[in-house]
Amino acid sequence: MRLTSMHCSRLASSPSSLLTIMSYPRLTTEQMLRKDQKTISRQGTKVAISAIYMDLEAFLQRSGLIADLHAFCQAHSYDALVAMTIFFNTYNEPVRQLAVFCPHAALRVTVCGVLERSHSPSLKLTPAPSIHPNLQAYLQGNTQVSRKKLLPLLQEALSAYFDSTNIPSGQPETEGVSREQVGKELDRAGNSLIPGLSQDEEEPPLPPTPMNSLVDECPLDQGLPKFSAEVIFEKCSQISLSESTTASRSKK
C-alpha cells in the first residue's frame, strides 16, 4: 500500500491510529526498548540502539526509569544504550530526539562527542535537561537522520573510544570504507540485529512484477514486503516535508 498525504494526516491526527501502530500500552521499559532494537559491538563493547515512538520527555518521566535502564544494560551486557524517540507534533511535523545512557563516563563522553560534532550527516543536536548524570538527552534538529544513518556514527564512536583509551583494536573494521558503505554492510550482514525484531529499512524493496502470472517461482509467492513502524514514519516524514516545500513555493 502506498502512503499518501491523507494517510499521513490521519496517522498524525488520530490518537487511536498512532496507538495502534507506534505506542506501547502497559509495556515495561525493557519491552519498549527491545520492541524495535539493533545492536553494534566492537572488541566486546556493545551498544544498543532502540527506536521508541513517543515523546522523549514522557519516556524520561517513567517511574524507576534509571533503575530499569541499568537493569536492562546489565541483563544483556550492554555498555551503552541509545534511545531514538520519534513522533509527530500537533502541526503534523516529525520530531526526533535522542537519549544516551551509559554508566561508563569515558564511553558516554566519546559517544556524545561524536554525535554532537558529526557533519556527515549533521544531527543538529541541542542538549536537553537530563534526569541523571549517566544520561544525556538531545533534541535532534535534523529529522531526516534515521536510526539507520546513526549506526555508522556509533561505529565511529566505538573506534574513537578504543583509540582514546589506547586499547589495541587490531585491524579496524571500517578502514577505507565510507559511512554509507558501513551502514549497508551492517544491514546486509544482519549480525548486529537481535533475532526476531523488526529491521529498519528506509526503502524496502518491492517484488518485481512477473512477465507472466503463470511462470514458475513467481516472486509474489514469497508474500508482500513487511513494513515496520520506522518505515511508515520515514514515508510520512518525506511526504510532510515535500508538502511543506510545495506550499511555501506556491505562496511565493
Care to describe what's here?
The structure is a single chain. A six-stranded mixed beta sheet has the order 1-2-3-4-6-5. The chain has helices at residues 5-13, 15-22, 29-35, 56-60, 65-76, 105-117, 147-164, 179-189, 229-251, and strands at 37-42, 45-52, 80-88, 94-101, 125-128, 135-140. Helix 6 (105-117) crosses helix 7 (147-164) and helix 7 crosses helix 8 (179-189). Mean pLDDT is 74; it is low at 1-23, 169-206 and 209-221. It is of the alpha+beta class.
Helices, strands, pairings?
Blueprint: H1 5-13, H2 15-22, H3 29-35, E1 37-42, E2 45-52, H4 56-60, H5 65-76, E3 80-88, E4 94-101, H6 105-117, E5 125-128, E6 135-140, H7 147-164, H8 179-189, H9 229-251
Parallel strand pairs: 2-3
Antiparallel strand pairs: 1-2, 3-4, 4-6, 5-6
Helix pairs in contact: 6-7, 7-8
Work out the oligomeric state of the chains in this entry: single chain
Main beta sheet: 6 strands, mixed
Kindly name the structural category.
alpha+beta
What is the first-to-last residue Cα distance?
34 Å
Shape: globular
Describe the structure in brief:
Helix content is 42%, strand content 16%.
